Amino acid sequence: MSVYRNYCHEITDEYGNLKKLTLDYPDNFNFGYDVVDKTAQETPNKRALVWCNVEGEEHVFTFADIKKYSNQMANVFRNAGIGRGDRVMLILKRHYEYWFAAVALHKLGAVMIPATHMLTVSDIVYRIKASGAKAVVCTSQDEVPEKILKALSQTELSAKLWCVQADVEGFENITCAMQRASGQLKRIPTAAADPMLMYFTSGTTGYPKGVIHEHSYPLAHIATAKYWQQAEDNGLHFTVAETGWAKASWGKIYGQWLVGSAVMVYDFDNFEPKQLCSIINKYGVTSFCAPPTVYRYLVRKGIPDMPTLKHASTAGEMLAPEVFRKFTERTGLTLCEGYGQTETTLLLANFNGMDAVEGSMGTPSPFYNIELRNKQGERVEVNEIGEVVIIPEQPGRQTGVFTAYLDNEQQYNYVWRGGVYHTGDAAYMDENGRYWFHGRFDDIIKTGGFRVGPYEVENVLMEHPAVVECSVIGVPDALRGQAIKAVVVLGQGYVPSKELELEIKEFCNRKLAEYKWIRIIEFTEEMPKTISGKIQKNVQRKQG
What we know:
Blueprint: E1 8-12, E2 18-23, H1 31-42, E3 47-53, E4 58-62, H2 63-79, E5 87-91, H3 97-108, E6 111-114, H4 121-131, E7 135-138, H5 144-153, E8 160-163, E9 172-173, H6 174-179, E10 195-201, E11 209-214, H7 222-228, E12 236-239, H8 246-251, H9 254-258, E13 262-267, H10 273-283, E14 287-289, H11 292-301, E15 311-314, H12 321-331, E16 335-340, E17 346-349, E18 360-364, E19 369-373, E20 386-391, E21 404-405, H13 409-415, E22 421-429, E23 435-440, E24 445-447, E25 450-452, H14 454-461, E26 467-477, E27 481-490, H15 498-509, E28 520-523, H16 537-543
Parallel strand pairs: 3-13, 5-6, 5-7, 7-8, 8-9, 12-13, 12-14, 14-15, 15-16, 27-28
Antiparallel strand pairs: 1-2, 3-4, 10-11, 11-21, 16-17, 17-18, 18-23, 19-20, 20-22, 22-23, 24-25, 26-27
Helix pairs in contact: 1-2, 1-3, 2-3, 4-5, 11-12
């Protein structure tokens, strides 16, 4: 029996479709002890992690292995003075040590801060200063140790430094230290309401915000893994994500292990579509999740047969209908879109048992009470645009939703104004109860009295063969208030010209309602982006 059943109650209809999911967990719930160690005790040889890299190295770790190695790493941390509430930054790319470290920190009650290896020195300075990190565990690759040392030299802070699988000056080799540490660990008291995890989430304005989740957070991902990604007991789930991003928590550890699925990890730097497909086939991946960018590449490069794959899902940005259709035609699998935030778990999705519709966010997770509301806090009617909000299970508290912004109570109170959690995302619901994304409120274009979500136009733009990447913004216009402008990166072999500009405009405007027509096109070689890859529309608006 999958361990998740110990902590939740599912109410399904006669077709097995989930209608409601409620949690029941003890005040001292801890993923490390109650999921990893519990599974290791009951089924020690059950697969937990299947790992390989581009060099051809591979490892299969059972839950008994994860228990042992996480205990060893926890003992290394504890011997260095790391304990309950201490903050530890992990910059481990897709190295398997991430899973040992994550579980070890959970067992100690320490706060894990995952971060990407792409951070600059100044990014690391900001995160160490803001979090007061007591230690850093990092990869030896991509000059990460050098950047950490430079960052620490620019602050008045010190931190314990570990590096995996390598001897690096200024760092202790934690791989060697683990081998000398005990594989036994007596349960350390922690609380489900203690902070467990902190992500720094990039916005389009200001410094990244520290988003803090508590120890009950993994349980909210049961719906993510089982009912959206359709990870299955004794299956193998593959989410394409680096461990520095929240997507790793969504698809590479918590929900998957709770429902009994092993996690597939491919440690690579440069994305190669055919190689990704070969991994799926070689190891027998049963469920797959990736951002739309990956599916775009797969569709353009050609998708081979993937006989073991039963389900495919996507999230992170809007998926172009063309990609949706071509993937389904080639594989017979419907791409199931999902929606959520770093601050939450999965909020809306095309869930198991429902027919996924291209472009739709799906329906609300049975784990949350979700509504669409206007600026006055009133619920909107069908087909009216409103903000996606969460009505909490009890005032000011909802399992799966973050518990604080780091040192920013004012911002936290603002997103919880009126007793509900405000996502800041606009959507509408159709007559069938499906939700459709309309854009961030601050990205919505008001033109000629109409409200236009940029993604509606961007999806059409991406269908033109010359367009590799695009961003749609509103710019001042004397006649309309705002005019719709498209910023476009061209594909190889295409050169900016007035003729191409006119061709793209006509191509798109034939497919768009008149009030959504593109009035201006600007060609650019590169988009301004945050470190997490989000296009900075605010920068583009300032540029005109």
